[in-house]
Design brief:
- With about 450 residues, this protein is of the alpha/beta class.
- The protein folds into three domains: about 190 residues, FAD/NAD(P)-binding domain (3-Layer(bba) Sandwich), CATH 3.50.50; about 110 residues, FAD/NAD(P)-binding domain; about 110 residues, Enolase-like, domain 1.
- It is about 30% helix and about 25% strand.
- The protein has nine helices and 23 strands.
- Strand 19 and strand 20 form a beta hairpin.
- Helix 1 packs parallel to helix 7, helix 3 crosses helix 4 and helix 3 crosses helix 5.
- The chain starts with a strand and ends with a helix.
Length: about 450
C-alpha cells in the first residue's frame, strides 16, 4: 500500500500524520519550514510570549501605582523577541522528535502541492494511498499605496522589528489586532488601532466593553479605512479615512492584523471558494476522491484545537471510519491583561452576569474595578447554553464548561461542585446561584 502523503506540518497535518502512523499506516509528512505551523511560528505562541511580558509590565505598573513596588520594569523588545525565538526552537525540537517517534517520515525544507491527480513533492509527482492537504495560511496585507515600505509588519515578520516603536499603527479590529494593541501599549508605544467596521464585532458586548477599558490608552479609530502608508524608504505615518474625512497619523511602525489568506495556490484541480479556501465536507473530503484537506487552508474558524480535530477526522476517514467533525460548542478566547473566553451552543437563551471575584492575579485589580466578569446563558429548558468570562485564567473554566454544555449541562449540574479557593473564576458560583434561585 502506498504511503499517505501529508502536505503541511502545522497542527492539522501533524496530528493527522501521527494518528495514521499510530494505526500502522506508512506516512510521509512534507513541510517546507519547520514543524509547528503558524500557531508556533507567528500565531498563538508568539502572542503568548509577548502577552506574558506585557502582563508582567502592566501588573508591575499597577503595583508601583499602589506603592507596592519601587518602580516598574521596561521592555527590551529585541531581547524579548530573541528569547521568544529560542523557546520556539526548543518547542520545534520537541514536536519533531514526537512526530518521528510516532513513525512518521518527515521531509523538511521541500515544497509540495497537488496537481489535480497526485501529490507533487519538490517538482515530482508521487503515488499516495491518500493525500491530506494542510498547507495552512499566511497573514493578509491590505492593498494600499506604501504597504511594502520598511517598517510595515505582520505577525509573520514581527520578529524582525529592530526596536520598540515610539508610535505604532495597528490595522485590524479582530482578536489578534486587539491583542497586539494591548501588548504594544503595555510596552510603552503610542498605539493607534484602525478598525474598518467595529471593534471585536463578533464578540459578546460585555467582553467588548471590558476589552475597551483595558485598551484605554489606545486610540481606536472605528469605521475607518487605511488609505495609505506614508513616508520615504521607511514608514513615517499613515493616512486614514473615516466619517467622510481623511486624517494623517504619524507612526514609525505599522502592524497589519487584517486576516489570513489560504496557502492553496499549489492545489490544482480541487474545488475552491473565491477567497482560495478549499471546499470540504464534514469528513474533510475534498472534491477529488482520496484527497482530504484540513486546518486553515479550508477556512475559519482558524483555531488550533479545531485544526487538530480536523486532522484527526481526516485520518480516521482514511482508516475507514465514518468520522465527522462536530463543532457544536467551540470555546474561544483571547488575552489582554485578563483572558477573555466564551462558548455557546447557539440556542436561544437569556443571560446573567456578575463582576469577577478577587483571586490569584486579580487581587490588586480591585481598586481599579478590573477583576473581570462572569456571564452565564440559560435556555428555556433550564440548560446552561453558554458561558463567557473575563479573568486572569478565564480560558480554563470556559473550555471545561464548554464540554459539559455540549453534553447538556443542566442549570443544577454543578450543585455539588467544589472549587479550589481562592479563585478568580466567577462562573461556577454564578451557575450555582442561578440554579438555587431559578423560577
Amino acid at each position: 500500500m502506498d504511503p499517505v502523503t501529508v502536505i503541511g506540518g502545522g497542527p492539522a497535518g501533524r496530528i493527522a500524520a501521527m494518528h495514521l502512523a499510530s494505526a500502522g499506516r506508512q506516512v510521509r509528512l512534507v513541510e517546507r519550514r519547520t514543524l509547528g505551523g503558524q500557531c508556533l511560528l507567528y500565531g498563538c505562541m508568539l502572542v503568548n510570549a509577548l502577552n506574558d511580558a506585557a502582563r508582567t509590565v502592566a501588573n508591575a505598573r499597577r503595583l508601583a501605582s499602589l506603592h507596592a513596588l519601587a518602580e516598574a520594569p521596561t521592555i527590551d523588545l529585541r531581547g524579548l523577541l530573541d528569547a521568544t525565538a529560542g523557546i520556539q526552537a526548543t518547542i520545534t525540537g520537541v514536536l519533531e522528535a514526537e512526530t518521528e517517534e510516532a513513525g512518521v517520515e518527515v521531509i523538511r525544507g521541500i515544497s509540495a502541492g497537488f496537481d489535480g491527480a497526485r501529490a507533487v513533492i519538490d517538482g515530482r509527482t508521487v503515488d499516495s494511498g491518500a493525500v491530506i492537504i494542510a498547507t495552512g495560511s499566511r497573514p493578509a496585507l491590505p492593498t494600499v499605496p506604501g504597504i511594502t515600505r520598511e517598517g510595515v509588519y505582520t505577525a509573520a515578520t514581527l520578529a524582525s522589528m529592530p526596536s520598540l516603536p515610539e508610535r505604532c499603527v495597528i490595522v485590524g479590529g479582530g482578536v489578534q489586532a486587539v491583542e497586539f494593541a494591548y501588548i504594544f501599549a503595555a510596552f510603552g508605544s503610542g498605539v493607534d488601532l484602525v478598525v474598518r467596521s467595529e471593534l471585536l464585532r463578533r464578540v459578546d458586548p460585555l467582553l467588548v466593553r471590558l476589552a475597551r477599558k483595558e485598551l484605554g490608552g489606545v486610540r481606536i479609530h472605528e469605521s475607518t479605512d487605511l488609505v495609505s502608508v506614508d513616508g520615504g524608504r521607511s514608514v513615517e505615518g499613515v493616512t486614514l479615512r473615516g466619517e467622510g474625512r481623511e486624517e494623517s497619523v504619524p507612526a514609525d511602525a505599522v502592524l497589519c492584523a487584517v486576516g489570513l489568506r489560504p496557502n492553496s495556490e499549489q492545489c490544482a484541480g480541487l474545488e475552491r471558494r473565491k477567497n482560495g479556501t478549499i471546499v470540504v465536507n464534514d469528513r474533510m473530503q475534498t472534491s477529488v476522491p482520496g484527497v482530504y484537506a484540513c486546518g486553515d487552508v479550508i477556512g475559519p474558524p482558524y483555531l488550533t484545537p479545531v485544526a487538530r480535530e480536523e486532522g484527526r477526522v481526516a485520518a480516521r476517514n482514511i482508516l475507514g471510519e465514518a468520522a465527522r467533525l462536530d463543532l457544536r460548542v467551540v470555546p474561544q478566547g483571547f488575552s489582554l491583561g485578563n483572558q477573555y473566553a466564551w462558548a455557546h451552543d447557539g440556542s436561544t437563551s437569556t443571560s446573567v452576569s456578575i463582576p469577577g471575584p478577587a483571586g490569584p492575579d486579580s487581587f490588586f485589580a480591585v481598586p481599579s474595578r478590573e477583576t473581570g466578569a462572569a456571564k452565564v446563558f440559560v435556555d428555556d429548558g433550564g440548560r446552561v447554553a453558554g458561558v463567557a468570562a473575563v479573568a486572569p485564567d478565564a480560558s480554563l473554566p470556559v473550555m471545561y464548561l464548554a464540554e459539559l454544555i455540549r453534553r447538556g449541562l443542566p442549570l443544577d449540574g454543578l450543585e455539588e461542585f467544589m472549587e479550589i479557593h481562592p479563585t478568580a473564576d466567577g462562573l461556577h458560583g454564578l451557575i450555582r446561584y442561578l440554579a438555587e434561585h431559578r423560577g
